[in-house]
Prior knowledge:
Blueprint: E1 2-3, H1 20-23, H2 36-48, E2 53-57, H3 64-74, E3 78-83, H4 89-104, E4 109-114, H5 121-132, E5 137-142, H6 146-149, H7 152-156, E6 158-162, H8 168-182, H9 188-198, H10 202-216, H11 223-230
Parallel strand pairs: 2-5, 2-6, 3-4, 4-5
Antiparallel strand pairs: 1-3
Helix pairs in contact: 4-5, 8-10, 9-10, 9-11, 10-11
Amino acid sequence: MSDQGELFPLPPGSEPQAPLATRMRPKSFDQLVGQGRVVEVLRELTRSGHLPSIVLWGPPGSGKTTLAGLLATETNARMVSMSAVTAGVADLRKVVAEAKVHRRAGLRTVLFIDEIHRFNKAQQDAILPHVEDGTVTLMGATTENPSFEVISPLLSRSRVFRLEQLNRDELKQVVERGLAELGASIDEQAMDALLEVARGDARVALNGLEAAAALAGEATIALDHVERAMQERHLLYDR
């Protein structure tokens, strides 16, 4: 479980030890790539000052965690994040107790639950009354259809937004920003390979790019560097 600071590190270049995917996490809606329709609606919600509980449903690397963090930041809320894989009812109770204290001081708490579909019914039931009374604003992220994985009472009190896999052009924009951050270059064949293997996942693309750049050193990133970095020799494109 962590506070908002982990989701939004210092600006690029200030934490060289952090993975590239972390350093490149957008710090504003303007820096986001893709998800145009969803982002437009979410921006309107932040401008209105009314932030409902939200479930973000989409494939890995589509920006669920980033969007949740931006929503908290844009509404001046305190954000606490947890993974449904490791958190339990005791963790939820602790968050709720802290949220009540902050609420009395006029500060909203956004509770971000990654992989919310991994919470069982008892765990989801435990958070429901605190979503109902506004103690916490829920931000759930899931790769699974929430209609089947999130209990109906919780789902009915949330807005569901479907995120799409980044298309090739959008993913290329992400990689080009990563290249600028690294001060690296890549040849066309290597770029094609990286985009193909990443399959719309920005995090996979940036992690692969960082590893390939390390292998290339001062040289231009080539196909061999990408293949070794991604540990996938059988790339799904015509060589």
